[in-house]
Amino acid sequence: MNGVIGLPGEAVEVRGGRVIIYNKTHPDGFVLDERAYIGGGVATQDSPRVELKDDEYFMMGDNRMFSYDSRSIGPIKKEKIIGRVLLRAWPMGNFSLF
After folding, report:
1. Considering the entire predicted model, what is its pTM?
2. For the chain, first and last CA: distance in Å?
3. What is the DSSP string of the chain?
4. 63-78: per-residue pLDDT in tens?
């Protein structure tokens, strides 16, 4: 399953197996807390910093060692994303219908 990691205008870097997001609120970056959906034994291979344009998203799969995602193919243009969110199931405390 792929998920959105970086939003338009942000930058994403994987260093030391940790995903770092840079944006206007956190210009020095913050480490994405993935403990809720990535197991402790899962390795995330490092990748260079990617600056996202106004219409781009950075996607990463939860099967990090074998996912074909933005680390391989680059950012995804907004026009290429299809689907609609109907339900948020995780984290359980934020369960909601849209």
Report:
1. 0.80
2. 20
3. -EEEEE-TT-EEEEETTEEEEE-SS-TT-EE---TTTS-TT-----EEEEE--TTEEEEEESSTTT--SHHHH--EEGGG------EE-SSGGG-EE-
4. 888 888 999 999 999 9
